[in-house]
Amino acid sequence: MGRPKTVYRGRRKYNWLVTLLLFVLAFLLIGAVWLFSYMQQFVVYEKDGLSLVLPYMRDGGGPFAPSTDEPDDDFERPEVDAEIVVDEAGFDDMDLTVGEGMAAIRARYVPAAAVTADQLTYLAASLEAENQNAMVIQLKTHDGHLSYYSGVGLTDSYSVNGTEDIRKAVEQMKGQGVYLVAELATLMDDAMALRNSPLALKDSGGQVITDSGGSWLDPYNRGTRQYITDIMTELAGMGFDEVLLTGIAHPRAEDIVYSQEMTSSPSIASSVSTFALRMCETAHELGMKCSVLCQIAELRMGTGEEIGQSPELLFSLFDRVYLFTDQEHLGSDVNALGGAPGADGAERIVPITIGWTPDRSSYAVQ
User: I want to staple 290 with a disulfide (CB 3.0 to 4.6 A). Which of 104, 174, 283, 332 is the partner?
Assistant: First the structure.
């Protein structure tokens, strides 16, 4: 008797079922994409938002109403070619009452290296003897670092925060009636431009714009504006009366790509003035005067407009214009600025000198 044959029956496979399911899913996906594309023609854009208007709804009919519509060939569907753009600021409609009610400022200038709570208290105590009534304190320099301890989050995140707590010293100075001016670097900011790349002004190759003055932040970047705004808000809460903005200028570079898309390439003056306007509006909303440091070397060479710093622009936006000068150039510098429209009143031009006191109603002495 022969041995029975061994018959092996393999497991039943369900490949056909898996294939069917994949086919059904693919069919449903293709149908959903087609339906989404087809239904876009019935989307109506109105001032209150979007709505879906199907053919049987155009004469007010409901789902069960008989339609008497003729074919929809003549139905006008709005064509939308949307593009988000940032236009140049229009200053003609702005009502900036700058420079009104400015009192003379006879200030002690305190550079960042000298900013400590004890030093500020000491200098404030000597103001009356020096016939001075104010202090200009450099709290953020062009290298991007702060000279005081700030509660603004980005300062710790990018290691630019200071360590000196000056709040009590500021409170004491305010109690003495000292007029306080906070000097802040803005668009020139080495550390933030190099460490926080999204805020930096770049060229078409993605490289940070850097020149002899340092690295630059993008004036159209919301993050740039918010960073400076947050610091200004903090200083206003501490009791500062005025903010002096430095680095309000434009680098000498042709290959620049801004972070915002615009209908046309902005001019240098527009780039600077748009940012400056936002900063001035913010300062005034916070109850502070807003001033600017003029890059006086450019003014002397007649090249101020090449960096966006014409005297006309500065006096039309800012309450005061500060400038570093010396005994040799004081008269000509002041005359050059004083000839600009709106530069009436000696209180609006503040020369900053080192070691000597100008014979003027407003000044700052280091």
Answer: 283
Domain that holds residue 297: 106-365
- CB count, 10 Å around CB of 246? 21
pLDDT tens digit string along 329-342? Answer: 999 999 888 877 76
253 found inside a domain = yes
Q: Given 25, 56, 74, which residue is the final one in a domain?
A: 74
- 199 and 65 housed in the same domain: no
More reliable by pLDDT, 122 or 51: 122
Report DSSP letters for 334-347, one per residue: HHHHHTSTT--SGG
Look at 3 and 356; give whichever has higher pLDDT.
356
Residue pair 192/160 in contact by the 8 Å Cβ criterion: yes
The 10 Å Cβ neighbour count of residue 260 is: 13
* Distance from C-alpha of 293 to C-alpha of 140, rounded to nearest angstrom: 13
Give the Cβ contact number of residue 297 at 10 Å.
12
Q: Are residues 198 and 314 in the same domain?
A: yes
**Contact status, residue 363 vs residue 109, Cβ threshold 8 Å:** no
200 and 259 part of one domain: yes
Residue 28 pLDDT class (50, 70, 90 cuts): confident
